[in-house]
Amino acid sequence: MARARHFSNVIAFDDAPFARAHRGRVLVVGVVFARTRLDGVLTATVQRDGADATRVLSALVTGSRFHSHVQAVLFQGIAVAGFNVIDIHALYGAIARPVLVVARRPPDMRAIERALQSVRGGARKWRLIERAGPMERIGRVLVQRAGLDLEEARRLLEGLTIQGAIPEPLRAAHLIAGGVTTGVSRGRA
Known about the structure:
The protein is of the alpha+beta class. It has one domain: archaeoglobus fulgidus dsm 4304 superfamily (archaeoglobus fulgidus dsm 4304 fold, 2-Layer Sandwich), CATH 3.30.2170.10. It is 33% helix and 27% strand. The strands form two sheets. It has a seven-stranded mixed β-sheet with strand order 3-2-1-4-7-9-8, with helices on both faces. Strands 5-6 form a two-stranded antiparallel ribbon. α3 runs antiparallel to α4 (122-131). The relative contact order is 0.19.
């Protein structure tokens, strides 16, 4: 019988808030956690509605001093900086670490597909979203995953969620990104 993998060291990413009219680069904050202890912070910028998130975040993870310890990467949603869609399977291949996308609610796929029609590279981005697969329910959240099975994803979430529905590393990334950008953290992760 195969030994179950455990994921205690993770990097979780969230993008910083930006004005609706903003068209430049957007801050993305990554937090490194060992179980529920914050061990580090990484930052990068990606283009608003661009196509560089997978490449930039892959380089950030593999180039960091945390790379050898990190066992999984988490995102809240499959896109950062508007519609800069993360190719979770390419990211998994590039960093050799499982990737887990977490969402509180099912996304409105029809609205996303319509919105992508007016975004440069929208058809490609829609294919990436479809390729990530359908969202699967685990407890109070939905997930998309690359490099781990559903049971491993469930154990990962249980080990990182202190209260509520969102894992602590994603909450921290959200709070830090908001605080650094606006001067005060707010809102739910």
